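Whiteboard transcription, Tuesday session. T.W. wrote the structure tokens on the left side:
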């Protein structure tokens, strides 16, 4: 599944907004009986490569802070 957002929506993504969006996406997947997986979605939305410096500095702290 691909998620498409506008450039204006992308500019409005703060860390808190991104966290809320990802968790709502996760919950929606669970309600629909799908395997919940945010890994690819996070990287598609932020346009950050997995295992890059930006991933380790931005995405992973945000993700693991909530666990």
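and on the right, the sequence the group agreed on:
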């Amino acid at each position: 599944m691909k998620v498409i957002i506008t450039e204006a929506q992308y500019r409005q993504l703060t860390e808190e907004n991104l966290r809320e969006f990802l968790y709502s996406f996760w919950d929606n997947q669970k309600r629909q009986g799908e395997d919940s997986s945010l890994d690819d979605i996070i990287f598609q939305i932020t346009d950050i490569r997995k295992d890059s410096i930006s991933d380790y500095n931005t995405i992973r702290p945000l993700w693991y802070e909530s666990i």
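Someone added at the bottom: Residues 7-65 form one domain.
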